[in-house]
Amino acid sequence: MTTVKQSPELTPSVEELEEQERRLVLRRFTHDDAWALGSLLVEMARERRAPVAIDIHRAGQQLFHAALPGSAPDNDAWIARKRRVVERYGCASYLVGSRYRAKGTTFEASSRLDPDTYAAHGGSFPITVEGVGVIGAVTVSGLPQLQDHQMVVEALERFLSRS
Asked: What are the chain's domains?
């Protein structure tokens, strides 16, 4: 078993991450909504000069993708691996990894899933529609995993406040 060191004052708890998912539920999610959310993430990334790639998938279809200056093809591979975690577990990739860390292990050591296919690193968040459930994922890759996660959460909060 691998023990993972974390900084509790900087790292959200499993409970805090679960609360984010309960709170960030949409009434609907259309192609136009994907464009608006993706464009909002691009705007945020440009303001921060964040070298990220951004991706939004719904029901197996890519609805939005952008790669900002400084991002690399490897970011697309990370996006796919993090998104697969959301699709398999129905919750944020960072939450899945945090649940393993809370048990004193890692996703890679204990999930029995291929790390070339799945990555429980922060940055992919479920798109959840009220009365329906998880229908897709919004993913950011290019920053440290907590920052990727926080950027997506902030964008969803802003997006919901506009609706």
From this structure: 14-162 (3.30.450.150)
